[in-house]
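Weekly modeling sync, notes
Attendees: S.R. (lead), two postdocs, one rotation student

Agenda item 3: backlog of single-chain predictions. S.R. asked that every request posted to the team notebook include the full sequence so nobody has to chase files. The rotation student volunteered to paste the first one in as an example of the format we agreed on. Action items at the bottom.

Example entry:
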Amino acid sequence: MFIIDGYNLLHAILKAEEAPGAIGDVELCRIVGRYLNLIGRSGEMIFDGTGPPDKSGFDGISNLEVLFGGLSADADTVIEDKISASTSPKRLTIVSSDRRLRKAAHTRRCSSLKSEAFWDNVQKQLKRRRPAREPAAKRHGLSESETNQWLDVFGFEQ
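Predicted structure, as returned to the notebook:
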């Protein structure tokens, strides 16, 4: 499972793409959700603060749970707590460029990725060309009229 420092990732993206405001938190979560769905993994994106009053934009994002630290804790503290509480830390991948979180991940033997590297992986995976879907007729066969038409074309009696 991926545990992602939301604003750290967002900051890395904005810095790399040099386009302020090009992507927001909801759009980021949707993109990461698509990525996680493609690779068959799940994750949690944790943001500082309480988030927007209307959190409905975060609903329905597959494979990604979106959490906010709230007023009493920042995202880093929430992530550290999740690392500490994990019963299988080797299955966690922490996404953050924050040294504090990377050290906490290393201490518990979690995998970790810097935000920039994670975003590169996301972009590469989403840009990969997907194989074309097979036409339904391939699995279901030809209809009776199509079969008769081909029999006529090739001169077979029906």
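Discussion: group reviewed the output briefly. The helical segments are 6-17, 25-39, 75-85, 99-107, 115-127, 136-140, 144-153.
Action items: rotation student to repeat for the remaining queue; S.R. to check formatting next week.
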